[in-house]
C-alpha cells in the first residue's frame, strides 16, 4: 500500500505546484523535488500504528542525509489508505532523524501541521508580471 501511495502523492504534489506556475524537477537519484530552483522537498509517508493501549502513533523517518530544505510528512489515516494530514517540517528546525507523532502533539510540532498541501502549493506558485507601459 505504501509503495503505491508514495508515487501517487508525489505526482499529485508536483502537478498541483506546476498548475500554479511552479517549476518542479524530480532528482532521479534522491527523489527530492526541486521547486523553482529555490528549495528542495522530500515527501515521506508515515503509516498509522495502532498501539495496544488503543492510541495511534506515526513514525516519521527523515531523509537527513539528503538535507532537503523541507520535509513533507504525510500522516496516514488509521487504515493506512489515505492521507490524514501533513506536516511541513523545515530542515533548519529538525534535530533528530526520526520523529514520533501522536494523535495530539506539542505545539512545537503542530505549528507545522496542515490539513492539505495548499500552503506548499502556494510556496511554489508564480505569477506573470506585466511590463510597465
Give the helix/strand class.
alpha+beta
Order of helices and strands: HEEEEEEEEHEH
Give the distance, in angstroms, between the N- and C-terminal Cα atoms: 55 Å
Query: Biggest sheet: strands side by side, in what order?
Result: 1-2-3-6-7-9
Strand content: 25-35%
Shape: elongated
Task: List the domain count as a whole number.
Answer: 1
Average per-residue pLDDT, rounded, comes to 90
Q: Segments where pLDDT lies below 50 for 5+ residues? A: none
Overall radius of gyration: 16 Å
In this structure, how is the largest beta sheet organized?
6 strands, mixed
**CATH level-3 fold name:** Trna Endonuclease, Chain: A, domain 1
Percent range for helical residues?
A: 10-25%
Total number of helices: 3
Number of strands: 9
Assembly of the depicted chains? single chain
List keywords for this structure.
Trna Endonuclease, Chain: A, domain 1, 133 residues, 3-stranded antiparallel beta sheet, single chain, 34% strand, alpha+beta
Topology readout:
Elements: H1 2-19, E1 24-26, E2 33-35, E3 39-46, E4 48-50, E5 56-61, E6 70-76, E7 83-90, E8 98-102, H2 107-110, E9 113-114, H3 118-124
Parallel strand pairs: 3-6
Antiparallel strand pairs: 1-2, 2-3, 4-5, 5-8, 6-7, 7-9
Amino acid at each position: 500500500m505504501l509503495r503505491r501511495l508514495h508515487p501517487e502523492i508525489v505526482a499529485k504534489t508536483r502537478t498541483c505546484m506546476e498548475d500554479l506556475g511552479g517549476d518542479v524537477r524530480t532528482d532521479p537519484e534522491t527523489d527530492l523535488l526541486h521547486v523553482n530552483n529555490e528549495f528542495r522537498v522530500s515527501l515521506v509517508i508515515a503509516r498509522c500504528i495502532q498501539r495496544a493501549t488503543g492510541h495511534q502513533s506515526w513514525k516519521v523517518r527523515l531523509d537527513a542525509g539528503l538535507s532537503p530544505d523541507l520535509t513533507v510528512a504525510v500522516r496516514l489515516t488509521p487504515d493506512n489508505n489515505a492521507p490524514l494530514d501533513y506536516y511541513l517540517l523545515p530542515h533548519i528546525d529538525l534535530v533528530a532523524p526520526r520523529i514520533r507523532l501522536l494523535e495530539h502533539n506539542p505545539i512545537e510540532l503542530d505549528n507545522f501541521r496542515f490539513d492539505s498541501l495548499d500552503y506548499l502549493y502556494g510556496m511554489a506558485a508564480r505569477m506573470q508580471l506585466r511590463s510597465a507601459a
